[in-house]
Amino acid sequence: MLATLRRDGSPRVSPIGPYLVLGHLLFGVMRSKKVHDLLRDPRCTLHSSVCDINGTEGEFKLYGRAVLVEDPQIRDGDYPAWWRSHPPAACHVFSMDIDSAAFVGWDLDASQYTVQKWSPDSGVSESKASYP
Predict the structure, then answer these.
(1) pLDDT, tens digit, for every residue of 26-59?
(2) Domain that holds residue 46
(3) Residue 85 forms beta bridges with which residues?
(4) Which of 76, 11, 62, 40 is nearest to 3 (CA)?
(5) Of 67, 35, 62, 36, which is closest to residue 48 (Cα–Cα)?
(6) pLDDT higher than 90, residue 77
(7) Number of domains in the chain
(8) Is 112 inside any structural domain?
């Protein structure tokens, strides 16, 4: 999922399929309000899909800024991205500059979750807590 900020500051959340290409985390966006969100305020969050209600696979989150990709070698390289079958004017491709990351793992038997965080300033940290 991609979360962007609307003009009024509220979130806009949309499904998205990112690609790792030539050292870049890329995602494409069809002409839409999401594009306007990102061009106005590039802050965004990518969140992994949660496949079951218990979150047994965990949740991965990336926080950062979207950067419009204009280099045709990166945008239109030899990889199977959906936007390659559309004219460049029909969609925008962004690379994500990552500010921080987090992984949340759930231990249902122990009623506990673990949060692993990373940022360039703090490095890696881990914390555990009980729930509910």
Answers:
(1) 999 998 999 999 999 999 999 998 888 878 899 9
(2) 2-103
(3) none
(4) 11
(5) 62
(6) no
(7) 1
(8) no
